Amino acid sequence: MDQAGAINMKRDLVRELIERWRGDSGSTYQSWFLWEERLKNFRSIRRGISQVVAEIEAGTFGAAYRGSSLEIIVHSIAEQRQIFKGADHAFLWKPKLRIPDIYVKRRSKGTPDRRRRGTPFSDNMMLVC
């Protein structure tokens, strides 16, 4: 089997696994992934990310994590599952380590991919956590 055939076979196996997961009434897809409260939170997160992107583009993204629009988003994500607890640790200011410098250096804030104008996510993007 050539490399392309192996890749297609793996893709088919993954697709089959996902279809079985979606079809299983006791799976996390049915009980958690499609949970209305979780979907509502993702819509809020999407709006929050749009706000952060707008702040970065306008040059108004603050110099502190605490109380920022980014903190609100990270906390919303952390609430999604216990597994994400502590997710905001990477964004906390650590002066001795100079981490993260997104609060200091303009170029470190980056510019988001604007090919998908209007929202950081395409409308059909499937968020999997």
Structural summary, described in words:
By secondary structure, the chain is mainly alpha-helical. The protein has 2 domains: 34 residues; 94 residues, no CATH class. Helix content is 51%, strand content 0%. The longest helix has 23 residues. The protein is extended. The C terminus is likely disordered.
Task: Kindly summarize this structure in a few lines.
By secondary structure, the protein is mainly alpha-helical. It has five helices and no strands.
Q: Would you spell out the secondary-structure blueprint of this structure?
A:
Elements: H1 3-23, H2 28-33, H3 36-58, H4 69-80, H5 106-109
What's the total helix number? Answer: 5
Low-confidence stretches: 115-129
Shape category: extended
Tell me the number of strands: 0
The helix content, as a percent range, equals: 40-55%
On the 0 to 100 scale, the average pLDDT is 73
Strand percentage: under 5%
Count of discrete structural domains: 2
Order of helices and strands: HHHHH
Distance between the termini: 33 Å
Rg, please?
Answer: 19 Å
Structural class assignment: mainly alpha
Largest sheet: none
Provide key terms for this protein.
single chain; mainly alpha; disordered C terminus
